[in-house]
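User: Batch of two.

Assistant: Item 1 of 2:
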Amino acid sequence: MSYLVSLVIGIAVGLLYGGLDFRSPAPPAVALVGLLGMQLGEKAWPLGKQLVAGWLS
């Protein structure tokens, strides 16, 4: 359900930007790379904690 809400909000913001003839703050490729980095960082944090806990025990 949260993916659907995200998609709807993203489309709404895109339509708003288009309607106002406003350029997005970042080019799409840069924005997608940033989102990918956020996702990788979010997944890497718990993995890193597990690795460190394993080394220390």
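Item 2 of 2:
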Amino acid sequence: MLWVSLKELTRLIDGGQELTLDTIESTFNNNPFLEHVRDKDVDSKRDPLIKCNDSFTKLWDSDISSKQSDKLVSDWVYRLIGNDEAVRRVIEISIEEIQKIVSHTGSDANSSLEKTFLDVGVLRFPDIANPYIRVYHIQLTAWAECRKVYIYARRNSNGVDGEYHMREYKPREKVIEGLAKDLQMIAISEGEKLIQELVRISDTASPVN
């Protein structure tokens, strides 16, 4: 079931096509074995996290401010993506890099910095506990800007923008029914083989006097 979509995605990549959320979603929607669970769709885009600081000194670089900034960023990102551990593991390293930029204080007046840390799709494979397929698309962009406002003062603006999308797919009921029938036939066949083997062993066994 899943390999149909993976094969198509591989073909698109080999052809040089960019895998956008629309492309990935279309590929899975066209898979005849999968059904899109639309009521599970998530499209989250939080208001940008923005911090500004006007100061004659580098108060923003203090240890306390840095820790507060780091927590502010991580809390904001986790509210964006929710509690899915699979996604959190993917973005842990990126959060650390984003924290550095959001905590950044420009050393030069009229300077700016922007970096997109995540623009990725994440595929969660089904298992026994979670018998469904999930496709994620996450984009996180951090930026920092320093502008001179007075002779000895500057304004530091820092922030992060983010988008989070999730699509869930499950096997179509007809596919599950077909698999169930196939498994029943296999079980019956294996059971018949086992009975035949037991009968054979019984027939060839020496009688007990």
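Residues 173-204 form the longest helix (32 residues).
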